[in-house]
Design goal:
Blueprint (H helix, E strand, L loop, with lengths): L15 H10 L4 E5 H14 L4 E6 L6 H9 L3 E4 L2 H14 L13 E3 L6 H10 L2 E4 L2 H10 L6 E8 L21 E2 L3 H8 L5 E7 L9 H22 L5 E3 L17 H14 L6 E4 L3 H4 L3 E13 L2 E6 L8 H5 L5 E4 L21 E6 L8 E7 L7 E4 L21 E5 L5
Helix pairs in contact: 2-3, 3-4, 4-5, 8-9
C-alpha cells in the first residue's frame, strides 16, 4: 500500500482551521465536502472542452444529494448505473427545478450503463429518458419487449476494445478479458443480431477503458481508438451514429509528486480528434466522476491509540476501511495530514507554523475493525497521541458510499456539506 503523507495543500479541500471547525461541529469520524469547489470544477471543465462534449457526472463516485442538486442546477448530464442512482438524480433535478442558477436540467440528459442490469434498472432508465448503453443482446431483447413508443428506442452499445487502449492501474481493465460490453471482434455479429429487433435502434457507442488517468495524451489515445471503433460501427449499421460516449477516466493526484490532469490539453486534443473525424456529426459524452467530486471532500478521524509492535508503529483510528475502502482495493492511499489543535500542540507532517517542528514517524494507519485487513495507508507524521485529528484529502470520491460501512455496526459517519465560506 502506498505511503499517504503529503504537504501539498492542493490535495485538501479544507484548511486546518476549517477542518477543526468541522470536527467540532459533529462527532468524528466524518466527511466534509465543498459544494462551491464542485461547481468551480464543473464550470472549469465545461469551459475547457468543445461545445459538442457533454459532461455526464458519474453518480457512483459520490451520490450525495447536495452535490447532485448543484450539478443539476448547472445543466449536467448524469451517468447512472442503478435504479437507485436514477431516482437520486430525479430527486435532485426536482429539488432545483424551481430555482435554476444555470441552464435548466431537463428530462433525459442521462446515460445508463452496467454489466448486469436488472429489470428494475432498465425500467427506471427507460422512464427517465436515459440513453441506455447495452452490454449484450440480452439487454436489447428486454428493451425491445418493453418499448412501445411511436419511434424505435435509440440505444448505445458498449464495446470492449481489442487493442489500442491503456490504463495506468487496472480498474476498468484496459483491453484484457472483461465483463463489460461487447468484445470488439464480435461487433459484426452483434449488429446483425440487433437488426432482429426493429423497435430498438442501435444509434450510439460507449467505450470506457481507463480509470484515474492523469495523462491527457493517454486519454486522447483511448478516445482516438473509440472513434475508430465508432467509424466501423457506423459502417456496419448503414446509418449515422448520433452519440458517442467516451467514458470517464479523468484522474486526480493522490500524492505530492503526481501531476494534475491538464484539462485544457484534453479539450484541445478532443477538438482536434473531432475535426479529424468528420464522418461523425453527433454529440459526445464524457463521464467524469472522480475528477469532479474527489477534490471536494475530506475525511476527518481521530487517533484512538498508538501502539508499537515488532518494529511497526500503528496509529489506530476511529475509522478505517468501514469508511475508506479504496486503499485496500487499489493499494493507493488517500493523502493524509495531521491537523494541529488550536494550541498548536500537534506536529503536522509539513512542519507548518501551526505546530512545533519535530521528528517524523512512519505510522501504519489502522482502523477499528476486527480484521488485520483494516489498514488505510502508511504515513510519515509528527508524534501522534490519542485525540489527535487526521485529515484525509481527495476523499470526495469513492469514499463514504464505496466503503463497508455496516461491518461491525459502527456508527455511520456524518457528511457535512459546506459552501466554501469557512474552508
Amino acid at each position: 500500500m502506498s505511503t499517504a503523507t503529503t504537504t501539498d495543500g492542493r490535495l485538501f479541500a479544507l484548511s486546518d482551521a476549517a477542518a477543526l471547525l468541522a470536527a467540532d461541529s459533529v462527532d468524528t469520524p466524518c466527511f466534509a465536502y465543498r459544494i462551491d469547489l464542485a461547481r468551480e470544477r464543473f464550470l472549469d471543465l465545461r469551459a475547457a472542452l468543445p461545445r459538442r462534449v457533454n459532461l455526464a457526472y458519474a453518480v457512483k463516485s459520490n451520490p450525495g444529494p447536495p452535490l447532485l442538486a448543484e450539478l443539476a442546477r448547472w445543466g449536467a448530464w448524469f451517468d447512472c448505473a442503478s435504479a437507485g442512482e436514477v431516482a437520486a438524480v430525479g430527486t435532485a433535478r426536482h429539488a432545483v427545478g424551481a430555482h435554476p442558477a444555470g441552464p435548466s436540467a431537463v428530462p433525459g440528459r442521462m446515460v445508463f450503463a452496467g454489466p448486469a442490469k436488472s429489470e428494475a434498472d432498465l425500467r427506471a432508465a427507460l422512464a427517465a429518458g436515459a440513453r441506455i448503453q447495452v452490454d449484450g443482446i440480452e439487454d436489447v431483447q428486454r428493451l425491445a419487449a418493453w418499448h412501445h413508443g411511436p419511434e424505435p428506442l435509440a440505444i448505445n452499445v458498449r464495446v470492449h476494445p481489442l487493442e489500442g487502449v491503456s490504463e495506468t492501474a487496472s480498474i476498468i481493465g484496459g483491453s484484457g478479458p472483461s465483463a463489460f460490453g461487447v468484445d470488439e471482434e464480435e461487433l459484426p455479429q452483434f449488429v446483425g443480431a440487433c437488426a432482429e429487433y426493429p423497435t430498438v435502434r442501435l444509434s450510439g457507442l460507449q467505450v470506457f477503458s481507463a480509470s484515474n488517468e492523469l495523462d491527457a495524451a493517454a486519454l486522447l489515445a483511448n478516445h482516438r481508438t473509440a472513434l475508430g471503433i465508432g467509424e466501423r460501427l457506423q459502417s456496419l449499421l448503414g446509418h449515422d451514429l448520433d452519440l458517442i460516449d467516451l467514458g470517464g477516466g479523468l484522474g486526480i493526484p493522490y500524492a505530492d509528486d503526481s501531476p494534475e490532469l491538464d484539462i485544457r490539453a484534453l479539450g484541445a486534443g478532443l477538438a482536434e480528434l473531432l475535426a479529424a473525424n468528420a464522418w461523425f456529426t453527433g454529440e459526445v459524452v464524457l463521464e467524469p466522476g472522480r475528477w469532479l467530486s474527489g477534490p471536494t471532500g475530506v475525511y476527518l478521524t481521530r487517533v484512538v491509540r498508538v501502539k508499537r509492535s515488532r518494529g511497526t508503529t500503528f496509529a489506530i483510528l476511529q475509522g478505517g476501511i468501514n469508511h475508506l475502502l479504496r486503499p485496500l482495493m487499489t493499494g493507493q492511499s488517500f493523502p493524509v495530514r495531521s491537523v494541529p489543535d488550536r494550541r498548536g500542540l500537534t506536529v503536522t507532517d509539513s512542519g507548518s507554523e501551526d505546530g512545533a517542528a519535530g521528528e517524523l514517524t512512519a505510522y501504519t494507519l489502522a482502523g477499528p475493525l476486527c480484521t488485520s485487513l483494516d489498514r488505510i495507508g502508511t504515513a510519515e507524521l509528527g508524534p501522534l497521541e490519542p485525540g489527535d485529528l487526521l485529515m484525509f484529502g481527495q476523499a470526495g470520491a469513492y469514499g463514504f458510499t464505496q466503503a463497508m460501512t455496516n461491518f461491525l455496526s459502527h456508527p455511520v459517519p456524518e457528511q457535512l456539506w459546506l459552501d466554501g465560506s469557512s474552508a
